Each structure stands twice: as C-alpha cells, then as structure tokens.
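Same chain as my last thread, 97 residues:
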Amino acid sequence: MQFAQLTSSGVFPIRNFADRDTLAHSSGLIAAFDAGGVSSVLGEAIKLRIPSFDFEDRLKSLLLRLAKKGKDVILYAERLRSLGMQDVFDRVTRNAR
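reply #2:
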C-alpha cells in the first residue's frame, strides 16, 4: 500500500520513508484547512510503519495541531511514544478527561 499526501491540488503518492518528512511537514500546513483528511492519512501511515525518528518534531507539532482542531489523536500519540511522544500523549489524555 502506498501512502497518499493531501495537497490543495489533490493527492500524490508517498513511496518511501524519506517522503514521510514531507508528509509530516506538508500535513501540518494542510491541517489548518482539512484536519479530518490529514488525520486519516496520518492514521494510515502509522498503522503501516512507525518511523524511527521525528525530524524537527514535525510529527509532534502535527499531533498537537490536530488535537487543537478537535481530532482524537490519543491512539496516534500512543503508537508514537517511542519517538518521544509521551508528553503529547499525556497532554491529549489529560485534555480528554
């Protein structure tokens, strides 16, 4: 299964791990407009593979931005704990109570 990245002009495939940095960065920008779509793409991406690092905290920023938009990111943060997302997990679970 290929990843897809949402853009203002449509969708393009993300074929390899290096492109996931692009996914996290671009998705952070798009989340301001389509948080539901970005959340869906992110969910599918981390179901398939957990990245080995969070370049420039882009995933962390994306999760926090999605949480502020009202998206449920608890499962994503839990799956990404190994990347230092414990504080994100703690924040979103505390806010969910």
